[in-house]
User: What shape does this take?
Amino acid sequence: MRGIAKSIVLILLILAGTLAYFLYPPEPRAVTFPGGKRFAFSIVDDTDMATLERVKPLYELLHRYGFRTTKTVWVLESNEPSHPPNRGDTLQDPAYRAFILDLKKRGFEIALHGVRGGSSQRQDIIDGLKEFNGILGEYPKIHINHSLNRDNVYWGELRWSFAPFQWGYGLIGKHKFFGQDSASAHFWGDLVKQHVRYVNQFTYGDINLLTINPSMPYRLSDKPYVNYWFPTADGDNLDWFDELLRPENLDRLEREGGVCLVYTHMGAGSFNKDGGPHPRFEARLKDLASRNGWFAPASEILDYLREQPGWTPDLSFREEVRLEILFLWNAILRGLLPAPIHS
Assistant: This one.
């Protein structure tokens, strides 16, 4: 029994040492922002379930407080509307299209969430990208994979680079994704490489993404169709958004000279109340706007970070594993902990 106990202790010590090695924080990166600003902030708004009625008041509020953020859109109508996250307005709707064009005119960034809510084959993707370009005058700089779309690039088990995580997800994951598979009817990896600059990979619970990934944005050698990946901070719904941007976190973001790109679903309903923006949403924006922050679209911030001294886009193996462990840990916490409770 003593021999077994010693073996268990030894294994635990080895595991602890290995975990400590991968989780040891990388060298911090100091960044100076335009105009003497103390930190950078944006929102990356996922278009799931977004309707003109819900999102227009929210963006009016963002504009009023001086924010320029990133909003994803769908070009084509959903072909799988029975899946709730696939529902929402698209650029096929004239009023919604006019609203999106007005946002772009005001300085907001329009990004892609796949060409539709639902899986698309290559010709539809080509047509959707051309229509995006025709309407907005440019191709999207940012793409965000959507839910169960089979045309997602490097999604599911291929979202991971560390082999044990990839294998583990492959065993439990029920869905496959083919956007990077040149033999698939859903392939468009070459178009991502040609037209899209940034793709979101993982989301974290930390407000300052530079502490998670100092070299953001980054490249991954095993995912060649994506030019650059970037992390986001978890503000999925109003409760998590409110929790992430509480005053003490904003104090820290400002103190550390950090970067926060909040990933959220502004059109899903939680940000609205009585036909307008929820008061808690406005309170967080008001606090943010009172601080010396650089409020710019996500791709503008990422472009700027690439130009700063000390940027190293190619992650080491250790950094890759660290990002994946931290993402897994955040996902576990989100699953185990109750949502924040607010009055």
Q: What stands out?
A: Residues 14 and 20 are 10 Å apart (CA to CA).
